[in-house]
Write a structure and sequence with these properties.
With about 160 residues, this protein is of the alpha+beta class. The protein has one domain: Gcn5-related N-acetyltransferase (GNAT) (Aminopeptidase, 3-Layer(aba) Sandwich), CATH 3.40.630.30. The chain has a 7-stranded mixed sheet. Helix 1 runs antiparallel to helix 2. It is globular, with a radius of gyration of 15 Å. The protein starts with a strand and ends with a strand.
Length: about 160
């Protein structure tokens, strides 16, 4: 497995990886309408736009993209950052790919300059992020609007 920076040429394949992950892994926790909305919001065009304002990475098994993750300044802050767009193909989950993506993001300059890192965590991924050392933001252990948890880590 290799983790490298996202290239615009990756956008179509990555959008398909995210769509499959949402449909397979997240469908047990979210209704179809939520899944389809998120697939639309992670289109190839949206990924290219997100990569323009963040450091986005892709995990590859040979030539195949199997996962991704991004980190950016939190609302333009230089002391806070946010992890975004973290997905791993269902067939690769539980094999260390997600951990490798988080490790990569935590070596990125946006992470290293920040004193606080936030992550919006899906119900599906909550346990994974908690194992990676992220705690509930302000101690709130309920999902915001019943949809996403707000987690954070301090350095």
């Amino acid at each position: 497995m290799e983790i490298r920076r996202f290239k615009n040429d990756d956008a179509m394949e990555l959008a398909e990886v995210i769509a499959e992950t949402l449909r397979v892994s997240n469908s047990k926790d979210y209704p179809d309408s939520f899944i389809e909305y998120n697939i639309t919001s992670h289109s190839a065009e949206a990924l290219i736009e997100r990569a323009g304002s963040s450091h986005m990475y892709v995990a590859c098994d040979g030539a195949q993209i199997i996962g991704c993750g991004a980190i950016a300044g939190y609302w333009g802050s230089t002391t806070e950052s946010i992890l975004l767009t973290i997905f791993v193909l269902p067939s690769y989950q539980g094999k260390g790919v997600g951990r490798s993506i988080i490790d990569t993001l935590e070596r990125d300059e946006y992470f290293l300059r920040a004193s606080r890192i936030e992550i919006p965590a899906s119900i599906t991924a909550l346990g994974f992020y908690r194992k990676m050392g992220y705690g509930y933001k302000n101690g709130v252990d309920e999902p915001e609007d019943g949809v996403m948890y707000r987690l954070e880590k301090f350095r």
